[in-house]
Amino acid sequence: MKLTFYGGAGEIGGNKILLEDKGGKVYLDFGESFHFGEDYFYEYLAPRTANGLEVYFEFDLVPKVPKLYSSDMLKLTDLKYEKPDVDGILISHSHSDHMNHISFLDESIPVYMGHGAKQILDIYSKLYPSFCDYGEHDMHTFKSGDKLKIKHLEIMPIHVEHSIPGAYGYIIKTSKGNIVYTGDLRLHGPKKALTEEFVKKAALAKPYILLCEGTRMNYETEHNFTEEEVNKKVDEIIKNSKGTVFTYFSMSNVDRFNSIYKAAKENNRIIVIDTRLAYVMSNLKDKVDFPDPLTDPNIKVYFRFAKSCTFNEKDYYIWEREYCPKMITHKEIKKDPKKYVMFLGFYKLMELVYIQPTDADFIYSMSEHFLEGEDNEEMRTVLENWMKHFKINFHKAHCSGHASKTDIKKIVETIKPKLLIPIHTENASGFKEFHPNVKIVKKGERIEV
Ligand SMILES: [Zn+2]
Ligand SMILES: [Zn+2]
After folding, report:
1. Alpha carbons 212 and 184: distance in angstroms, whole number
2. I need a labelling partner for 340 at 20 to 30 A (CA). Which of 24, 38, 197, 370 fits?
3. At what angle do helices 405-415 and 192-204 cross, to 10 degrees?
4. Residue ranges near ligand 2 (ion) with Cβ within 5 Å
5. Burial 7-45 (b: 16+ CB within 10 A, else e)
6. What's the first-to-final CA gap in the chain, in angstroms?
């Protein structure tokens, strides 16, 4: 049995782990690193649609593995196309760092993912067709507890809690014993019971190897904010605000939407979402606890100025028109600013020119790396300038989609694998504090059991 770490080793994200066992060959995720290409590409100096994998192979950004990629992607490379020998790609959840590079793969390779993850993929492909083209793979969907069989490998996906619905970990029965793969998970949100169930089943499997995520292993002492605390903080900000409260969070973060929605409702405010978020909610509401934007009286849908400037439905995409009956525009918000909590992304800040907010607040509720990382300095300055210009009070309220170090310790100590391999972390050696047999792997490294 062999494991090759083409990504997700020595870095947070970009998981691409090949498992080979007695003729069975599967990948655990096929994601894109967060810092993908940033050493060589800059603004318009970036691969175009005419480019294939030759650009990425040149800088060793994508592993040069035969019998894996599509003929189209290989046409200008020195790797000749051969029929793939991979039996399947097991996706843990639909974040880009776990699935983005599927677009390079030969379409004959089957892809496995949870029902919820597939639905999110379909929604994003509709909303952002040019970014989300993953090809026509044979997509096998599953639900938690299903038993998949790929060659002789028996695979059980089990749901976990993360910052996106439809997230799974896997227990895989191989000829050398069980392997447990956590994907990304946390234990401090409203659905922590899912992760607890996964950990329990993983422990019962008495695994030989645990591939465990460690995103937050670097932060020893930070406070582990829970989703409940986010709700409290947001509630406090809304209660004290004398104007409109604007907020920005990831559209697929259902728990975050619900925290903010709850706080808005408790303070007798209407939550204003954009058409994209409305579309995401409508299409996921049967799978997760999103309210229905078309019928919920506490939700209005914001329509921006378009072509005619008359808010005529013909100005909008066909999928947006469904929400016209729930339409709200800058005029109503400007007239009664205290009545609303409005979802407003960075790229939608232009609306403030029309809303002309006074005494407003902005709650930034996305992952911290945008506000703290060096890479985003220019964007951050622009955001700050907008806040200053409109005299908007800026707040942060966020909790991570990843388990704290303390919770990772608990997970490892409960599952008790013989061998622990840290992945999706920049602090693999930190795992040695709570397991006697930790194998630290480098990118590209292959281990044999
Ligand atoms: Zn991840
Ligand atoms: Zn993730």
Report:
1. 9
2. 370
3. 30
4. 95, 184
5. bbbbbbbbbbbbbbbeebbbbbbbbbbeebbeeeeeeee
6. 5
Report how far ligand 1's centroid is from the alpha carbon of 143 (Å).
20
Taking a C-beta distance cutoff of 8 angstroms, is the pair 232, 266 a contact?
no
**Alpha carbon distance 417, 373 (integer Å):** 35
pLDDT confidence tier of residue 383, bands split at 50, 70 and 90? very high
Cα of 253 vs centre of ligand 2, distance in Å, is 11
Band the pLDDT of 309: cuts 50, 70, 90.
confident
pLDDT digits (tens, 9 = 90+) for 195-236: 999 999 999 999 999 999 999 998 766 677 899 999 999 999
Q: Please give the Cα distance from 389 to 342 (Å, whole number).
A: 18
Among all ligands shown, which has an atom nearest to the Cα of 13? 1
Answer for the pair 269, 332: CB distance below 8 angstroms, yes or no.
no
For the beta sheet containing 245-248, the strands, ordered from the edge strand earlier in sequence to the opposite edge, are 327-328, 299-302, 270-274, 340-343, 245-248, 361-364, 393-396
| 184 Cα to the center of ligand 2, angstroms | 5
pLDDT in tens, 233-265: 999 999 999 999 999 999 989 999 999 999 999
Averaged over 438-446, what is the pLDDT?
A: 97
Q: What is the mean pLDDT of the segment spanning 363-390? A: 84
Instruction: Specify burial of residue 224 (Cβ count, 10 A radius: 0-12, 13-18, 19+).
Output: middle
Ligand nearest to the CA of 425: 1
Q: What is the DSSP letter of 80?
A: P
